[in-house]
TrEMBL record:
Domain FAD/NAD(P)-binding span(s) in chain numbering: 11-315
GO MF term (any one): oxidoreductase activity, acting on NAD(P)H
Gene3D superfamilies: 3.30.390.30, FAD/NAD(P)-binding domain
Species name: Methylorubrum salsuginis
A GO cellular component annotation in the UniProt record: cytoplasm
Alphabetical list of SUPFAM superfamilies matching this protein: FAD/NAD(P)-binding domain, FAD/NAD-linked reductases, dimerisation (C-terminal) domain
Protein name as annotated: NADPH-dependent 2,4-dienoyl-CoA reductase, sulfur reductase
Cofactor(s) for this UniProt protein: FAD
Positions in coiled-coil regions: none
Domain Reductase C-terminal: 339-409
Pfam family, one: Reductase_C
Signal peptide start and end residues: none
Keywords: FAD, Flavoprotein, Oxidoreductase
Length: 424
């Protein structure tokens, strides 16, 4: 156990009013904190759930109002639509964009990420060019999809892009997906399984272009009419969705002396934020997409993950450690990263992180059936497991990852094929 912050807090400020921030607020009250609790959010909406935005909301199955449940006795002040502008560690204050200042005894940084904008600002401002990260983004894009565009062009090979592509096909909208490097979903699943998802997308009618980039966008009267690819081909389109990654919201921390950069806010295994010189700031914590922390399941490698489950788990760990007395010590945040996605009629689930994996085995089912569990190994140890429409075995493999089991950890299950180890 590590030493806890000294003194019981009377005022806690949470900067970030999304899943991690609200989860921390509930956990603080659940741990018995009865003092002043303030949540600061740059959006005007109450905390809401983001995963449905790229799926059910775009399809019109859900309202854009995916507000997260809030305990009636939370007794917290919400400062919404007012972003934090700076942090003063010495004074223990957070300044807001409206000029007000909030003092704190404990601070949680949970400002998350925003969509990475299209790099050419003149093209990004065209009518018809979108990103998808927040509720307002989903509302605007959903309205345009309902109008029946001629074609949607998606840029990016990650989960958001492919979820939107799947939604477009569900709505019978022609869609082209441009993947500049490698295979779709390669960063999360590796080229083998990512390539399989790409095959399935093509079977569902997606015009998938690998190694393709936009040279320029074309418009008439400020409205998008198409894109020209490097190589000269023109694609007529009413909508471009730039799904090219996320930017961590660290700008407001400039000058505060924290170890914060485009990779996130660096914290230790107990969610305590670090200064630029490596010292711990005992009363400032981080959680959610903004946090970069040593992952015990990857030999303490620093990771920052944009996963729903990690945001909740890390927020709870931070809340507990904010309130821990000197006798109790601190609890380690040791959540095993996990993720899921629904697209093209498939449910994809992943536990662990595949980065650095050097081997792959299909442990249950088969690629041909499009129903299987795949295991990832690194240097003889099981580090991740992924399933497509076959999640029954995932809890067993999650336990094996936590136990640092050899690769592959289970070789005598009754429904296993003959194991053949390959490259990912």
């Amino acid at each position: 156990m590590s030493e806890a912050p000294s003194g019981a807090p009377e005022r806690i400020v949470v900067v970030g009013a999304s899943l991690a921030g609200l989860s921390a607020a509930h956990a603080l009250r659940g741990e018995g904190f009865a003092g002043s609790l303030t949540l600061v959010g740059d959006e005007r909406h109450a905390p809401y759930d983001r995963p449905p935005l790229s799926k059910q909301v775009l399809r019109g199955l859900f309202s854009p109002d995916t507000t997260l449940p809030r305990h009636p006795d939370l007794n917290a002040e919400f400062r919404l639509g007012t972003p934090a502008s700076s942090l003063d560690l010495d004074a223990r204050t957070v300044s807001l964009g409206d000029g007000t200042t909030l003092p704190y005894d404990r601070l949680l940084i949970a400002t998350g990420t925003r969509a990475r904008p299209w790099p050419k600002s003149d093209e990004a401002s065209l009518d018809g060019v979108f990103t998808l990260r927040n509720r307002d983004d989903a509302t605007k894009l959903s309205g345009r999809l309902k109008a029946g565009p001629r074609r949607v062009v998606l840029v990016g090979g990650g989960f958001i892009g492919f979820e939107v592509a799947s939604t477009c096909r569900d709505l019978d909208i022609p869609v082209t997906v441009l993947v500049r490097d490698g295979q779709p979903l390669e960063a999360a699943l590796g080229p083998r399984l990512g390539g399989l998802v790409g095959e399935i997308a093509r079977e569902r009618g997606v015009d998938l272009r690998l190694g393709a980039e936009i040279e320029r966008m074309e418009a008439e009267g400020g409205r998008l009419t198409g894109v020209t690819l490097k190589g000269g081909e023109r694609i007529e389109a009413d909508i471009v969705v730039a799904a090219i990654g996320a930017v961590r919201n660290v700008e407001w921390l400039e000058g505060a002396g924290l170890a914060a950069d485009e990779g996130g806010v660096l914290c230790d295994g107990y969610c305590r934020v670090l200064r630029q010189n490596g010292d711990i700031v005992p009363d400032v914590f981080a959680a959610g997409d903004i946090a970069r922390w040593p992952n015990p399941h990857q030999d303490e490698a620093l990771v920052a993950v944009e996963h729903w489950g990690n945001a909740r788990a890390q927020a709870k760990a931070a809340a507990r450690n904010m309130l821990a007395g000197p006798a109790a010590g601190l609890a380690r945040h040791d959540h095993l990263p996990d993720f899921w996605s629904q697209q093209f009629g498939l449910t994809i689930k992943l536990v662990g992180l595949t980065e650095g994996a050097d081997s792959l085995v299909i442990a249950h089912g088969s690629l041909e059936e499009r129903r299987f569990v795949a295991l990832y190994g690194r240097e003889g140890r099981t580090v991740a497991a992924a399933s497509i429409d076959s999640a029954r075995w995932l809890p067993a493999y999650a336990a094996a990852i936590r136990e640092r089991a050899p690769f592959p950890p289970i070789s005598d299950a009754v429904d296993q094929p003959r194991l053949r180890i390959e490259e990912p």
